[in-house]
Amino acid sequence: MEQPGISKPEPDLRVRIGSIQLKNPVMVASGTFGFGEEYSRFYDLEELGAIVVKGLTLRPREGNPPPRIAETPAGMLNSIGLQNPGVEAFIERELPRLRGHRVPVIANISGDTFDDYFEIAERLDGVPGVAGLEVNVSCPNVAKGGLAFGLDPDSVYKVTRGIRRRVRTTVIVKLSPNAQDIVAIARAAERGGADAVSLINTLTGMVIDVERGRPALANISGGLSGPCVRPVAVRMTWQVARGVGIPVIGMGGIVTGRDALEFIMAGASAVAVGTGSFVRPRAALEVVEGIRSYMVEKGYASVEALRGLAWRS
Amino acid sequence: MNIRGSRPPEAESKPVQVVAPVISNVEIAPSIFRMSLSAPGIARSALPGQFVHVVCHDAGNHVSEGSRNSGLSLDPLLRRPFSICRVDRSGATIDLVYQVVGRGTEMLSRVAPGEAGRAGAVDILGPLGRGFDIPRSLAGEDAAGRALLVAGGLGVAPLIFLAYALAERQVRADVAVGARSRDLLWGIDEFELLGFGVELATEDGSAGARGLVTELVERRLCESLGGHGAPTVRYAAIFACGPAPMLAAVARLAGERGVPCQVSLEERMACGVGACLGCVVKTKAGYRRVCADGPVFNAADIFFDSDGLDFDPGASDAGVLHEAGMPDEARLSDR
Ligand SMILES: Cc1cc2nc3c(=O)[nH]c(=O)nc-3n(C[C@H](O)[C@H](O)[C@H](O)COP(=O)(O)OP(=O)(O)OC[C@H]3O[C@@H](n4cnc5c(N)ncnc54)[C@H](O)[C@@H]3O)c2cc1C
Ligand SMILES: Cc1cc2nc3c(=O)[nH]c(=O)nc-3n(C[C@H](O)[C@H](O)[C@H](O)COP(=O)(O)O)c2cc1C
Ligand code: FES
């Protein structure tokens, strides 16, 4: 690690994840940004480091019945159920428009079987406009009786290795915080050939509507996100970043530049803003600005100089 | 399945996020407040039926950009949607009318008038969503018929904005308003000033007919068909907003009589702009987003359950828990 450099006027915000060159370390998280169209009304998408699109599956998915949203203290639960138009519709209808913005687009993919994952990864590999894949392993593994792939290191290894052997593009494995030992899962992804890992996905949670005496979500439970999960996410980022040799993309409750700096100082090479965009539509840009002004103020020349800073204490 | 709206959001007014000074915030009926906000951009471009997504905090707004962490109000975290009740294009203001039903609306009710960027201003995002479609056939001398506006409770709010637009286009309209009791009625004078006749129903009979607003609608539609004697009025469109069971009943009546009906729906929202798929309702074309494809839909396209849009806890859940063998996060939550 370098020491903080001499103050430079314009810090270098660029980072590299696999073969993807990001102009800054701030992405938007899958499922919180649709396919980019909605938020393009609020700012120029080219200001972002990368866009991770809504989770895709081979075939269209209808998703879960409503209500799908419940608020929690400083957070929220969602049970969208991976509603998406399917990979072909994504390529035909969403990608051409997304390609028009000069920003790396990362496709988030899910499946119920190993073959699902392999097939969708192969389908997207090399498609113009797809800069990389983020593999969401929080899906139920049909063969394992519904236990999520992401909770079991062997499954994560097999999914990752299988995809790695089939595609040339950058492969990021997205980790579930619900795993018993997230470092073991991250190492399995690394061994399988992942270029990077991202974390955290949502934590399983539940809200009961006391007035009605029933779960607030039609689906009973949902995934917790937002500022309330940040301390958990920072801790996991710290552990994983020290436990693997590949870049880590940190997320969970980031709303401001300072929130993002916590992840970077815990060892993340890049960060993603999810729920924060719901609260402040320009949150991701505000995070870029917050990181930049911190670097200027403290005299850091590059993101790498900040990465893992807190380890030294 | 096409999960996007048939019309791109850009076809409608471009939304902005602004910290809008509060001009007034007054209790107009028990627990019902009317808030006037200075928001020139939104006042200029908003259409009837659109809504704004509001940071509900008694500090007034999430902290302004560039500042450090402190002061960012993260609880309650999510914005709350409110229909635009009225725009004053020359005064550059918008009015919201809201009922205090929980933490967010409680905090909103405590915001005092003030200046931009400090307490006394509210962070709003809008205008959002697709509003009412006013068919050309409603306007002018040779109109196909009158419009019927049906409101239950706070459903009055978007219909007032609509009423102004109808009056501008010289559409003739009648209004039916329902509330639990007389003291919860509001906005009636605004409809009347625009020259629209208003019929009332209260559940306790303290004003107008005793019963539900849907009974008024049923009677009007019968008359419209000339059930007794000559047809007195003919309705060419119904616009409705209110609780889901009311909308379901109005939709059914309109369907039976063949009158085109638009309903403004509500669902829990996160982003409010169409990005998260959190606010969907079941339509004949699959799930659609209330915030971006709606909130106004053609009633004929919506699947109403017997008790409105509410889910049936018995039907969907039990299977989900058991089919996977465990209450496993993967199949229950979205990742
Ligand atoms: C498009 C749209 C337009 C709306 N327009 C108005 C309006 O003009 N005036 C008005 O008073 N209210 C309106 N609502 C409802 C309003 O958004 C909720 O009452 C508000 O979010 C409650 O916030 P809270 O923090 O006070 O309540 P919470 O503590 O979050 O919840 C309290 C109660 O309100 C219900 N509720 C919460 N959010 C919603 C929601 N999004 N839709 C329906 N019920 C909800 C909950 O089920 C609960 O019973 C609208 C909702 C939508 C979707
Ligand atoms: C509404 C919603 C939908 C999501 N959909 C997906 C998804 O499709 N695929 C995925 O990998 N993660 C999904 N996530 C998880 C986020 O990408 C992110 O990992 C998580 O929300 C934590 O970050 P945050 O606290 O900043 O939101 C979703 C989150 C939310 C709130
Ligand atoms: S609230 Fe996010 S899509 Fe409607």
What does this structure look like?
- The complex is a heterodimer of chains A (313) and B (335).
- By secondary structure, chain A is an alpha/beta fold.
- Chain A has one domain (15-64, 80-203, 222-312): Aldolase class I (TIM Barrel, Alpha-Beta Barrel), CATH 3.20.20.
- Chain A is built from 9 helices and 16 strands.
- Chain A has helices at 87-99, 114-124, 153-166, 182-191, 230-243, 257-265, 276-279, 283-298, 303-306; strands spanning 15-17, 20-22, 26-28, 50-52, 69-72, 75-78, 105-109, 132-136, 170-174, 196-199, 203-206, 208-209, 214-215, 221-225, 248-251, 270-273.
- In chain A, the strands form 4 sheets. In chain A, strands 3-4-7-8-9-10-15-16 form an 8-stranded parallel beta barrel, surrounded by 6 helices. Chain A has a 4-stranded antiparallel sheet with strand order 5-6-14-11, with no helix packed on it.
- With 335 residues, chain B is α/β, with parallel strands linked by helices.
- Chain B has 3 domains: 2-128, Elongation Factor Tu (Ef-tu), domain 3, CATH 2.40.30.10; 133-264, 3-Layer(aba) Sandwich (Rossmann fold), CATH 3.40.50.80; 265-322, Dihydroorotate dehydrogenase, electron transfer subunit (Dihydroorotate dehydrogenase B (pyrk subunit), domain 3, Ribbon), CATH 2.10.240.
- Chain B contains 8 helices and 16 strands.
- Chain B has helices at residues 40-45, 103-109, 156-168, 188-193, 213-224, 244-257, 313-323, 329-332, and strands at residues 16-29, 32-38, 51-54, 80-83, 86-88, 93-99, 121-128, 146-152, 173-179, 197-202, 209-210, 235-241, 261-264, 280-283, 286-289, 296-298.
- In chain B, the strands form 3 sheets. Chain B has a 7-stranded antiparallel sheet with strand order 4-3-7-1-2-6-5. Chain B has a 7-stranded mixed sheet with strand order 11-10-9-8-12-13-16, sandwiched between helices. A two-stranded antiparallel ribbon of chain B has the order 14-15.
- In chain B, α5 runs parallel beside α6.
- Chain B is globular and about 55 Å long.
- The chains are: A alpha/beta (313), B alpha/beta (335).
- At the A-B interface, β5, β6, β13, β14 and α7 of A face β14, α7 and α8 of B.
- The structure holds flavin-adenine dinucleotide (FAD), flavin mononucleotide and FE2/S2 (inorganic) cluster.
- Flavin-adenine dinucleotide binds next to β4, β6 and α2 of chain B.
